[in-house]
Amino acid sequence: MKYTIGIDLGGTTMTAGVVNENYEILGKLTWPTRLPRPSKDLEKAMAELCRAVAKQCRVSFDQIEYVGIGTPGSVNFNTGFVGYNTNFGYYDWNLGPDMAALLGCRVYVENDANAAAFGEYLAGGAKGYRDAVIVTLGTGIGSGIILSGKIMRGFNFAAGEIGHTVIVKDGRACNCGRRGCWERYASSRALSEDAREAMRQDPDTLMWKLAGDLDHVNAKVPFDAMAAGDATARRVVETWVEYVGCGVANVVNTFQPEVICIGGGVSNQGEVLLGPVRAYVEKETRNITCGSCPAICACQLHNDAGVIGAAFLAESI
Ligand SMILES: [Zn+2]
Questions:
Q1: pLDDT grade for 251, boundaries at 50, 70 and 90
Q2: Which of 6, 31, 174, 299 ranks highest by number of CB atoms within 10 Å?
Q3: Are residues 152 and 284 in the same domain?
Q4: 177 alpha carbon – ligand 1 mean position (Å)
């Protein structure tokens, strides 16, 4: 049996898992990332984490074929170099080569959204399909495009930023510098913001009772209120779903992947979300797809997608 280690490196925690060739996680460990700290310290901690998780799984480190890391930031997959990482405050981080020296094995580094998308492609909602696009609705919209088993990276490794395609020209300001980006309308944060705005205008909406105050509004609140029959919440959700569908229809018309997987906490809404998105996308793309719209389904691996995807990065080229 071949083993690899995948690391999902985040701003708050980092998780490493030992994975076998059947995409099964034998065991994983999560440690706090403890930012801010110098990059060399973090690298040492990550190396320790790798050795600790191997030990926990009773796999000798010699049996680990390679280590893959999914990290926020812009990553040169060929060199393992992280050019820009605002979350961590690092610039020009030589992550791949440094980790390879510390661990004595091959190390692959990829952007975290791509790594998680690849995990979902190999072992989750997109398993068994050839071409897939994975979009994660969270604070922003993360996405990964996998065509014929390979992550589409672009010549400069910056491809797959579907969240920053504009769906409303001169629309809401985005932190990427553009206005009207998809993620400003269809992320789960956008849904919470829309819900807050609707609450300010409607003192009677059930969302007040469910959230208590504006600070406790998350993407679940409007869905829960809608389920209980609240008309204002229904309007908020329906408008937001159309924005989600608008971007997904763009993905369909651009790539015609066999499947589009939607992830993020809000995807726990299941068919309440997916059904209307599917209907909207099918309606919008009918004349292009002639009725054979790609499958639209939910991601399945949740937090494990990043670890599994990172653990198979050598196959993503
Ligand atoms: Zn943007």
A1: very high
A2: 6
A3: yes
A4: 6
Ligand 1 centroid to 166 CA: how many Å? 7
Ligand 1 centroid – CA 162 distance (Å): 9
How far, in Å, from the CA of 176 to the mean position of ligand 1? 4
> What total of structural domains would you count in the chain?
2
Are 205 and 147 members of one domain? yes
Ligand 1 centroid vs 182 CA: distance in angstroms? 7
User: Which residues form the domain of 86?
Assistant: 3-121+304-316
How far does residue 178's CA lie from ligand 1's centre (Å)?
5
Instruction: Check which CATH number belongs to the domain holding 57 and give it.
Output: 3.30.420.40
Assessment of whether the complete model's pTM goes beyond 0.90: yes
pLDDT tens digit sequence for 16-36: 999 999 999 999 999 999 999
In this structure, the answer to whether residues 29 and 177 fall within a common structural domain is: no
Judgement on whether residues 28 and 117 belong to the same structural domain of the protein: yes
